[in-house]
Amino acid sequence: MEETYKDRTSLMKGAKDIAKEVKRQAVKKVNKAVDKAQDGYTQRSYNRFQDEEDDDDYYVQGGNYGVEANDDEGSSEATEGHDEDDEIYEGEYQGIPNMGQGKDGMVALGQPMRDEYKDRHELETERKADEEELAQQYELIIQECGHGRFQWALFFVLGMALMADGVEVFVVGFVLPSAETDMCIPNSGSGWLGSIVYLGMMVGAFFWGGLADKVGRRQSLLICMSVNGFFAFLSSFVQGYGFFLFCRLFSGFGIGGAVPTVFSYFSEVLAREKRGEHLSWLCMFWMIGGIYASAMAWAIIPHYGWSFSMGSAYQFHSWRVFVIVCALPCVSSVVALTFMPESPRFLLEIGKHDEAWMILKQIHDTNMRARGQPEKVFTVNRIKTPKQIDELIEIESDTGTWYRRCFVRIRTELYGIWLTFMRCFNYPVKDNTIKLTAVWFTLSFGYYGLSVWFPDVIKHLQSDEYASRVKHFRNEEVSHFVFNFTLENQIHSNGEYINDRFIMMKFKSVTFEDSLFKNCVFEDITSLNTYFRNCTFVNTTFYNTDLEQYKFVDSELINCTFFHIRTGCQISFDDDYSAYWIYFVNFLGTLAVLPGNIVSALLMDRIGRLTMLGGSMVLSGISCFFLWFGTSESMMIGMLCLYNGLTISAWNSLDVITVELYPTDRRATGFGFLNALCKAAAVLGNLIFGSLVGITKAIPILLASTVLVCGGLVGLRLPDTRTQVLM
Fold first, then answer.
1. What is the pLDDT of residues 195-214, one digit of tens each?
2. Structure pTM?
3. Which element (helix H / strand E) includes 488?
4. Where do the domains of the chain lie, and which CATH numbers do they carry?
């Protein structure tokens, strides 16, 4: 395959050399013909030619920005008044110039070489020069359009998409405890729910970010948010744990494209002096998403009565209602995005000048009307567009069927995304990509490692306290007694229960060990974390209970009868207040981000992105370190709020720097790659910290503190982008 490619390249190069030689020989013949024809020209026509040449130069300099000076510098009397674009003389197809237009032939000799005769390096050099010119001109155009109603409308639309991303992150931690119980998930499988969502977000960030540089910011964002909304709704109705993981995987895959696309989109309609501040204000929607998720979880999930059942197979509990409510920001953003235009900066990058001009005029007119100046005219007539370089794509011969065409199209798009990604490691952005990789990884590892699994830390502390209050009962002998009350947090050992009735009872965290049940009746029983270990049941009847076989550990059942056994795990304890505490803690931790958001937005353009990034990460590392000395839940919650408030400034400044360091043709791709790396670091921190949460808190906290400080020092080495135009 490689040799075939080399042969094809050699043939193409040879064909170009032959074409150049043929053209050079034709030019010599043209020069001789032109010399003969020029002798017949009068002085009057020569003077007219000089006048027209001056007029053309003025026309090019005055208004046609970005248009090559390809107009003819003179014409003979025979061709005066004719439209050269409409008329073709007889010998044109043979490459013979019209003798009546000898001066045209002479002017053509001085024109630049056509693109098909240039190698790729020359084309890329010209495109780079065009992009630099466009960057300066686009900044002036955005300043002329002003900052007003259009930017604020787009601000709230994109904010809803960013809010949906924040909700998706917090949904995992809030749903996990209830989903574990409802779906009977063992402790060994509970970590998969958090990891699978981040895995989907990681792949989605890279894919949708790359697609945004190929098909457009608006189009990519619409598709990815639609995918997220559909699978988020579907996940609230599925019953099996495997199918639930599948839906949350694709839900995460969809929402993964929100962050890179949103920031790329919004930055391209902001002027330089507004960019840092307003991108920081946009980050507040991620915090609002976290507050929304915490408040909804606090209000919905503990209300176990908000549920219904269709037999024993279909259970719809309150946490599923919470999942539906959390999908509403995503749906709102999809609806609002349909009324927004594409990024004009992206359209100019791919050569769609007229569409970009119309959108820029729309931005200008919308803002001017809001200011009470509808008479103000958009003065831009022509915008520089970079030279478009066609990609040579090999299409297979058997693409006649629709599925083959789809396959080729998908493969081509994926290959284009990969090529754009590899360009993020080319000069001059290679060093910036490496440094940004280190900063994104360390910040994500430290932040998500402590924050995502923090509800489980609180849950573990409460479990330890709960276990310390357990009651032990030994050698009980109870006969002919009716149990009709709740048993909670108890251990019964070596007991004998003869002719007893257990009716309409709730068992919560109750264990029976080495006990005998003879001629007993269990009726209308609901249990949670209840087990019978090494027990013996003789002539016992079970009616309408949820005591399944796995709750009888090493137990012997002799002549026992089961009627109407409720399968599946049950959530039915209205007096479980631990959920309220977990959601309230997360609500406080998310609300603590608000001061950091305000400070970062106000100071982003004053003290600079780098100072805020490095200082915030170092201070976050120090505050994270002091979590080690927390001796109570209240002290750890207070330190967590301080940690979140300091970290958000680093996130905001890092988002702004990332947008400004990449050029338009790879901005979303580079951002998507770094965001994917962020999710990978979150999964790694999730697994490491989650495995140590019940063993020791020193190692994960010290690890997070160390990586945050190191990442902050690396961030200080990034170039300052405060005064740069958006390349």
1. 788 888 888 888 988 888 88
2. 0.71
3. strand 487-493
4. 121-384 (1.20.1250.20), 471-568 (2.160.20.80)
